[in-house]
Amino acid sequence: MEITKVLVANRGEIAVRIMTACQEMGIATVGVYSDVDAKSPHVEMADESYPLGDPTPSASYLNMDKLIDIAKKTGANAVHPGYGFLSENSKFAQTCADAGLKFIGPSAEVIDSMGDKIAAKRTMRKAGVPVIPGFTGEEKGETIQQACERIGFPVLIKASGGGGGKGMKIVHAMGELDAAIQSARREAKSSFGNDELLLEKYLAKPRHIEFQILADEFGNVVHLFERECSIQRRHQKVIEETPSVALDQNLRDKMGQAAILAAKTIGYSNAGTVEFMLDADKKFYFLEMNTRLQVEHAITEMTTGIDIVKWQIKIASGEHLTLEQEKLIQHGHAIECRIYAEDPEKNFMPSTGTLKTVELPTGMNIRHDTGISQGSKISPYYDPMLAKLIVYGEDRKDASRKMEWALSNYIALGVTTNIPFLRAIVHHPAFASGDLDTHFIETYFKSWAASTTLPPEVLIAAAIDDFKHSAIVDDSENSQAENESHSPWKQVGRWRIDS
Amino acid sequence: MEMQYEYEGKMYPVKISREGEQFKVGVGDKTFVVDYKELKPGFITLNIGGKITKCNIATEDNQRHIFINGNVYRFNKVEAGMKQASFDKLPSSITSPISGKVTVVGAKDGEIVNSGHVILTIEAMKMEYQIKAPYAGKIEKVCFKTGDQVDIGVLLVEMEKEEAGAPKKEE
Q: pLDDT by residue (tens digit) across A287-310?
């Protein structure tokens, strides 16, 4: 089936990213937006855009009826869900299929098989993919409390229905368990509409290593190597890189084969990511499979030269995968930093407001995936990620230095961002040495704070700016001074007075 | 001309005068002679004794956001006469650090709570934020109920600090 027009059922940077790929391929695009996003770049980027109304996610970007209706009215023949929102919703995939729209992603059955994290682990364990010890609800007659005693604290509570850190809690002792379960259920319910939870052993010093895979609709699967996403806050990724310093070629091959096995086991098609935890002894465990495009896909694109979004569309059109595993190679090193509207000094509390000034660093091998612009209002309705900054270098050191430079020149004023915090991480000796694990931020940046004193340059800049603005007011109030401002005598007079 | 800025609870007086194309700026006990160039609105460069500093300024009422060397400083310009009023914090009130929706109310008006007691849970951007009692004391008034939308900075809870004899927490 030839894809001719794609409705992008998403917002922000990922909507822009997908529309760019479509336009490069000569495919028409349809954008959608909620009331608060009416002036967002993705709205203007699309060939045509339609309102979804009320910004509440359930009324807008999660509203299947509205989305399908717009797709049909505009004559789109495919839907790209991006990430988040409806991207891992099997009902949406099925609704699209029923409406004669190609869902750019795997089938509803496949999403279902991995969407339920409990069933996913069961499937993977059976297929021979290593899985972390835990509680999936299938253990006969066992309560969550009993499971905690069996596995041993600390344990991690997760939402069965989704990822992204939503609904996740670490529990260190039995006394914290009930409160954590209740909070996790509420978050899971509001994010995924499903409050089922699962539990697993919380590993000490684990790394988060994931493999990007591409699978066509004829059973061919390749992996595009790993991404290390160990630097996280609140179980959400902050900095990702590829390749990982923790993997040698032997381990990379083994994990890559496990990822392909996982995909083949469930008959996967389209782009997907198999996530693993790698412990200090270099043992790896299947964590979950993300049946969609990932936020951090760009670093894989930078080091392989492969456009993952275009492959998603080609696969969905029924094309065969022409990439061969043996011929795939990675060059250099890529790092991504997620620019969040949040305050690292206040427990990463999201910040809202208007972006008054945005000026992005440019240069060789610096990539920006962004869906914001100067004047953008950051509302509390959606994820606080503003943009992604991706750099490529000849090696890890080169890429790190480039990232630090780019962050130092990344101007986003008006909303508190995590940029100074990201820069501090990239600058840290533990980052430089590659000594990463998912507790990195807790370990090294627990009570991080930006400088609490103002350098004189800041005060000088503020004072001059305020002086100039007050001077304008004075001039306009005194018409005589304005009339005489070109008089040479006045200028000479000023020199005399001030010196 | 003299200006006052406030950052992290500290006051910074700055003296400034124009000297031809240059500015003479006094910060603390130092005086700087500064060449100033505005590239476009908000984008300026300072030349202080040959050292170039690029900075960006965004202004919002009395608030100044300044970007220098990769850091962003957010502080206030203090106008004469408002110095005291704006920095007197009400110790008996808790304001919202975030805009979002109240999902749980964990205390009633008149209730005596321990320090750290979760009074409200606010959901924003799909994450939960717990508003905890900063000290042991009596809840005078919880200003919102479950389902209410709250804006950043609004008064959430009025509380009276318990000086002594606060109830002990049971584990």
A: 999 999 999 999 999 999 999 999
Domain that holds residue B39: 2-86
**Tell me, what's the pLDDT at B14?**
95
Preferred mutation among A169, A415, A427, A460 to probe B, highest tally of B CBs within 10 A: A460
Q: How confident is the model at residue B164 (pLDDT cuts 50, 70, 90)?
A: low
Distance between CA atoms of residues A42 and A264, nearest Å: 35
Contact A498 B53 (CB under 8 A): no
Residues 62-81 of B with CB under 8 A from A: 64-75, 77
Distance from CA of A78 to the nearest CA of B (A): 28
Digit-coded pLDDT (tens) for B78-101: 986 554 444 444 456 787 877 788
Amino acid at the residue A270: N
> ∠ CA B56-B57-B60 to the nearest 5 degrees?
155
Per-domain residue ranges of chain A = 5-104, 133-201, 207-444, 456-498
The answer to whether position B63 is within a domain reads: yes
Could you count the other beta carbons within 10 Å of the beta carbon of residue A444? 16
Token pair 């310009």 in the structure block, residue: B77
Among residues A408, A388, A285, the alpha carbon closest in space to that of A339 is found at A388
ipTM computed for the complex: 0.71
